[in-house]
């Protein structure tokens, strides 16, 4: 009786499923292991960021540790080929929005559809969790990434000035609507 009482007064509306079962996938001829990231992966994540961002690490060890603790509404995946980290992706989920927080693919594995595969996984997960949209930020000068996101249905939304503080670069916010988007308009009576 108490359980039913609690469910009535504290319903778990839009419960988000963050469970993840590791698996192997063949992406463009690469046999990849895809698993949920843990603190043990942080050294590899930092090395991959240095490779992708020309020696810089936009996210430091503390940033990764903080994000990996948010298991209630976040999912971070790492992708290995044998013992080499080749890519990762992270996202935060809510009923209104799934936000891609970070994605990177090692330079030697770029242009092999691994990034597309990871993005599609997160979009599918957002649909399963009944999110209204998927959003992300991308550097305004990163045309290759923008084309990938556009090919998945994302549209430019607005510019965030100086979003990337380490390089003083602007970011474009992009959105993929998963449900019909309606602008709420006020009704005026005359």
TrEMBL record:
Residues 32-179 form the N-acetyltransferase domain. It holds the Pfam family Acetyltransf_1. GO terms for cellular component: ribosome. InterPro entries: AcTrfase_RimI/Ard1, Acyl_CoA_acyltransferase, GNAT_dom, YpeA/RimI_acetyltransf. The keyword Transmembrane does not apply. Its EC number is 2.3.1.266. This is Ribosomal protein S18-alanine N-acetyltransferase. The gene is rimI.
